Sequence to fold (83 residues):
Amino acid sequence: MKIKVFATKYALSLGIEEFIAEWNEDFPTRVSNRWHSATYHGEGRDWHRNYSDAVAKAEKMRVAKIVDLKKQIAKLEKMTWNK
Fold:
């Protein structure tokens, strides 16, 4: 069965991808995109059925990445090389 999905697996590098995916009822949490040879696992995690859910997930990912980068910057700013 084919369904329209919005993938957020690579949202921070590629953006939200919209495509028609192959969906199998035997594996309901998994969809595949044969054009990119990619499989996305977990509805609500890697892929979404509607755009607003995908945007909400991408926003959470963006905020988490900013927090992580701020921690990395703070760690680098504290580094010194004194003898």
Residues 9 and 45 are 7 Å apart (CA to CA). The longest strand covers residues 17-23. The chain has a mean pLDDT of 90.
